Backbone:
């Protein structure tokens, strides 16, 4: 692992957050486009659907968290690329499956028709399945030591499975029409959304040589940011317009879903998000690293809580 | 890696094929039951559906191929356990998704209601998704060198994704109602069914120290057996009864699907299966290993071609 920031990182240090995000979003888009199979190859429809699900949309919050965590530990950006692709492929597959008629039955995502609307339900299901496999294929290629690569596979498999994202979605299904306590709601969201956001940070850091105390502080950061993200999502579902969200707002209420807003109320939900932001920033401080190293993760945490879409 | 067969393998050498299969099916069942999350833990419904999809059913052809390949290279059976679980979890997830209304819309599998009938479509989709993640989680725990473990993850991700199973299913979707050449049909089935069967053999061998010439011979074996399996499946879909199959026969024809029988005719399909069996046995001979080491893979190839269900 390089012990000094590579050229690209030094150049990025002077950027505003917006410039840094744009640079990494563009980088991600190029890498994702190169990694996904071409629609000119058979099976063409599946490849087209996979690309449609991943490319040209999304804020890339998970890849950005991975890149920022990688910068914090001075990981090679080429290694973090694989982490960024893997977490976003898993995120994209989960959206494709979540939008299907048997789940949320949503027709609009990132301002575009959902994958099963643009293609077919069968193709959408297969595209999601194939994206999950491709996520693990990406991780195996990460240019780091074999043991560190295996740790990435372990982390992603855990974050994506029953102890993570799929488990959270199942809890969400089971909760429909039921009253949840704040603790139950928090557990559901820590799994459903939090686990993969947390994995993005930890795997970005795992692409470098991260001392255990720094990793422990990043775990606290990632856990707080993952939960804050979902609380803000719930707030936005009530407050934002369809044009801002790029998806149908008010769905949670229409589906009688338990959210932070329905359980805590709007003011308390906002207060909880602010509290989690403070926890995240305190955790970054506890890494003991200079502000220049923690800057991007700090800015991303603020952005996640302040975002309007 | 042990260079002499472990105790368990020596004891198994005197077994008939039926006894050997039963011993490994029982072993697999115990390992799978222990590896899958308990239905007493939340999310209970998801866990129950995952267990329902995997346990108490199926011939375990893929695990048996993995165990037999592992015995051939004198791999530790504890290492092959992880391979067996991983390939069967991927196989089980693919059946759950394949049976959904948006795919084959099947209500009967292994003589039981399919997962979406017994639970719900949403739970079936999540159970499949979670089983894929768990397959990779199993591989990471394989007690072999890190590089060899990574090779297993690479092989499974490739066999499960667009270059393998998902790609084959997409080709199958695209082929509905169309005429296929024998070459197109073979390509579709090499991906759809062949890739994972092939991976079961190669990953079983990958759990041990397999010299490259032996691995090359096993690749030819696995490729021939993978294709023969599907040809026999197509023959059985025409010939066998529901009771024998444990699923609805005649579905291919009813869905106007291209099969080896519709494209080649029954006699030519049978001849092709016999030819592939001969190729598989020749490949085993080319390993240069004594008959005692290749016996189980030989018997399994014969069984796959001669099976009635």
Residues:
């Amino acid at each position: 692992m390089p012990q000094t920031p590579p050229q690209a990182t030094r150049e990025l240090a002077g950027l505003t957050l917006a410039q840094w995000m744009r640079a990494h979003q563009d980088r991600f888009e190029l890498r994702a486009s190169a990694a996904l199979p071409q629609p000119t190859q058979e099976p063409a429809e599946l490849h087209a659907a996979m690309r449609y699900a991943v490319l040209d949309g999304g804020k890339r919050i998970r890849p950005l968290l991975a890149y920022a965590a990688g910068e914090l530990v001075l990981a090679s950006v080429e290694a973090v690329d694989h982490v960024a692709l893997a977490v976003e492929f898993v995120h994209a597959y989960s959206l494709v499956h979540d939008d299907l008629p048997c789940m949320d039955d949503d027709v609009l995502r990132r301002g575009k028709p959902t994958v099963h609307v643009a293609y077919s339900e069968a193709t959408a299901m297969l595209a999601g399945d194939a994206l999950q496999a491709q996520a693990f294929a990406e991780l195996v290629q990460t240019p780091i030591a074999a043991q560190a690569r295996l740790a990435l596979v372990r982390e992603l498999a855990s974050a994506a499975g029953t102890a993570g994202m799929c488990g959270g979605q199942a809890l969400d299904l089971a909760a429909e029409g039921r009253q949840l306590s704040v603790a139950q709601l928090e557990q559901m969201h820590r799994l459903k959304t939090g686990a993969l956001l947390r994995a993005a940070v930890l795997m970005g850091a795992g692409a470098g040589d991260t001392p255990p105390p720094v990793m422990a502080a990043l775990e606290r950061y990632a856990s707080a940011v993952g939960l804050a993200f979902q609380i803000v999502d719930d707030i936005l579902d009530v407050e934002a317009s369809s044009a801002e969200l790029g998806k149908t707002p008010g769905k949670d209420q229409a589906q009688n879903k338990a959210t932070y807003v329905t359980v805590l109320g709007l003011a308390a939900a906002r207060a909880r998000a602010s509290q989690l932001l403070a926890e995240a920033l305190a955790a970054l401080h506890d890494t003991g690293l200079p502000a220049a190293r923690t800057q991007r993760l700090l800015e991303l945490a603020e952005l996640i809580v302040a975002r309007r879409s």
About this structure: Residues 1-5 of chain B have pLDDT under 50 and may be disordered. The first helix of chain B runs from residue 7 to 12.
